[in-house]
Amino acid sequence: MTLHQTLFRKRKRVEDAGLGKKRSKGLYTLSLAPHALYIMKAGFVNIFGKPNAGKSTLLNALLGEKLAIISSKVQTTRHRIKGILTTKEYQIIISDTPGIIEPKYKLHEKMMTAVKEALEDADVAILLHDLTDKDTTESHEIFAALKLKVPVLVVCNKTDKVGKERTETALSFFKQQQYCTGAVAISAIKNQHTDELLKKITDLLPEGQPFFAEDDITDLPVRFFVGEMIREKIYELYEEEIPYHTTVLVQEFKEKSTLVKIQADIIVQRDTQKGIILGEKGQGIKTLGMAARTEIEKFLGRKIFLELFVKVKPKWRDNDTHLKEYGYH
Asked: Does 15 map to a domain?
């Protein structure tokens, strides 16, 4: 069963049972009676770190689902993305957050607001250090500045790219820090030692009632992930400024008997950027559309008809009205 099928099966079940209250864009919340809940290990585990440390890859590895888009380019994640992992013993709500940066415009400010919100509701924090960094100084300064008051696991990522000596040196350093409750070295992309990390997380979680039903995977609507997949392909196919000056707005998502019709706008800041995305004789956007369609069909488990349009909105990254329209709150 695809992630999309799981999400929509859940939505239909909630709707039919009369348990859900519909919110915007097809998202439902549950209103379950207290007797339907039980005590387990449950809490919010939020991932923080520098851009490109591997936060999205780690989220996907822990969930066993590709929920967050990934790219070799920095600052791919712009939203807080929650994934829900539930077993009989625990429910972990894991949040991927944007990389911590000094804001340069309002879009960055919105991204850092998502980080702040995640800091405030964390039951356990994962501070992710990139082992390919030459030393631990920059990560340490960021981690110390967060002044977290919850248990902290420092996770040294990308063991597949460095030697044992660098890994052990980093672990030894972080274990000595006051903010560190525990430390573990992993390779998120290879899914190595993530089981050990999961055990450390569950040991630190408080006991309580689950926040979501057992078959919930995320609290975000399907069209959000569709837009993210299109944006992921922009990061893959275009260089330099284009990915950072671009966002995607899904305008139409209609399920028909034979396929799903999707229409999305690609927002850029300048006419020259529009020309680059379109490419010569429209070849650029055709390639983009084909790549995005393949990924979305895999996600939905259905054929899709995808229409992409490129629109110019000057300085959208610094415009509060545009940012709100494009989902940056």
From this structure: no
The answer on 181 and 234 residing in a single domain is: no
Closest CA to 205 of 268, 126, 266: 126
Q: What is the CATH number of the domain that holds 291?
A: 3.30.300.20
Each residue's pLDDT expressed in tens, for the chain with a length of 329 residues: 555 554 544 444 333 333 333 333 333 344 343 434 578 999 999 999 999 999 999 999 999 999 999 999 999 999 999 999 999 999 999 999 999 999 999 999 999 999 999 999 999 999 999 999 989 999 999 999 999 999 999 999 999 999 999 999 999 999 999 999 999 999 999 999 999 999 999 999 999 999 999 889 999 999 999 999 999 999 999 998 999 999 999 999 999 999 999 999 999 999 999 999 999 999 999 999 999 999 999 999 999 999 999 999 999 999 999 999 999 98
Q: Which domain holds residue 56?
A: 37-208
| Same-domain status, 147 and 248 | no
CATH of residue 174's domain is 3.40.50.300
- pTM here is 0.87
Domain boundary among 179, 208, 237: 208
